[in-house]
Amino acid sequence: MRKMARSAHAYVRGNTAKFYEWLEASPAAARVPQGPAIWICGDCHLGNLGPLANGEGHVEVQIRDLDQAVIGNPAHDLIRLGLSLATAARGSDLPGVTTARMVEAMVEGYAAAMRDPVEGDGGPEPEAVRSVRRKALGRRWRHLAKERLDAIEPTIPLGRKFWALDPEERAGLKAVFDDPAIADRILAFEGKHGGRTIRMVDAAYWMKGCSSLGLHRYAVLLGLKSARGRSSYALVDLKEAVDPIAPASPDAVMPADNAERVVAAARALSPHLGKRTIPVRMGGRSFFIRELAPQDLKLEIEQFSKGEAVRAARYLAFVVGKAHARQMDDDTRHAWSDRLDADRRGAIDAPGWLWESVVSLAGAHEAGYLEHCRRYALAA
User: Fold this and answer.
1) What's this model's pTM, rounded to 2 decimal places?
2) Domain around 220
3) Which of 44, 87, 91, 263 is deepest in the core (most CB within 10 A)?
4) Residues 145, 146, 150, CA angle at the centre, nearest 5°?
5) Which residues contact 22 (CB under 8 A, 6 or more apart)?
């Protein structure tokens, strides 16, 4: 709770439940169009977008966190992204007119993805994205180990982030990675077959993030050995999957198991992530496994300039649009684009429901943030 009090942007990122509660109560709620029922992120804020690597080492900016993913209304991802961008703009002390231009740019980027999700023009890559992509391309295992483990040697240091396991947890994790099916999937991502084996070198409970608090989450260091005896390592994240907060479409058919739901969403929305996410059961709970690639980074945008803010809005909406559009046929994409164009009015060249939703939610979250600070940060 104190972490969420650090800034209004941190509060928006950490409060998905309030987002949907306040969206439902907003004056624009009745006018939000019902888009095609597809997989959506459900929590589409800036921090959940970033570079991801596939098994061949190719890096692309995609949606990187799908805990809240459901088959739902794609308009919800647009509103969530718009609110996140608007909050970042306010944190950068940009004028309100810049937020209006950002919403206009979002609609342009999203529409470009709807027209052509493969070769569409996302516009100039903003510097905030370009810099993190460059950083991602230059990263190797030693960078991941130093950042996540605070060491290059193959151990997980216990302390503030990593906590000791009890014997039952350790035995459960060992059983997961002793499963040949799980080992084969991990080796497939590594591109390393031919007599290679996997063993669990070290593991710890991982105290991480806001959405993970109160859930079971583990970091596992795996040793990979070739038939010739050469060793390498992989760092794996096991995260408990629970019921989503994001509303699903009434007729949506999704996997009953929450980890399988997350994996299905990842394959639809973020192919680089979907290919290396595995559902498992442990101790009667549902988990999904993801190997952490050194190139996986989140967008951390602390300060926007006016031009950079507008470019980022267009580009990131294009990324989200591609994730949505690849699930639709041509007729569905065109029909959804037409619905988005139908409500443009007033001085801002964007759908009225999107602008009004962002404005209403920005006000609700600002008031909620100040009250949150009174309750938690001031008391601390």
Assistant:
1) 0.88
2) 140-291
3) 44
4) 105
5) 360, 361, 364, 365, 368
Average pLDDT, 10 consecutive residues per value, the chain (380 residues): 82 86 92 96 92 78 94 98 92 90 95 89 74 64 60 76 94 93 78 70 86 83 76 86 94 96 96 90 94 74 80 94 96 93 78 93 91 83
Q: Closest Cα partner for 259 from 236, 290, 235, 234?
A: 290
Cα–Cα distance, 78 to 44 (Å, whole number): 8
Both tokens assigned to 173: 């994790």
- Residue 90 has which token pair? 């306010």
d(CA 343, CA 302): 32
Separation between Cα atoms, residue 60 and residue 136, nearest integer Å = 10
CA–CA gap between residue 359 and residue 86 (Å, rounded): 9
Closest CA to 355 of 124, 43, 86, 66: 86
What DSSP string runs through 56-83? T--EEEEE---TT-EEE-HHHHHHHHHH
Helix locations, 276-347, DSSP H: 306-325, 330-341
Q: Which residues pair with 338 in a beta bridge?
A: none
- Pairing mode, strands 285-291 and 231-240: antiparallel
Q: Structural domain tally of the chain?
A: 2
Instruction: State whether 252 and 146 are in the same domain.
Output: yes
Last residue of a domain, one of 264, 291, 318: 291
Question: Do 180 and 276 belong together in one domain?
Answer: yes
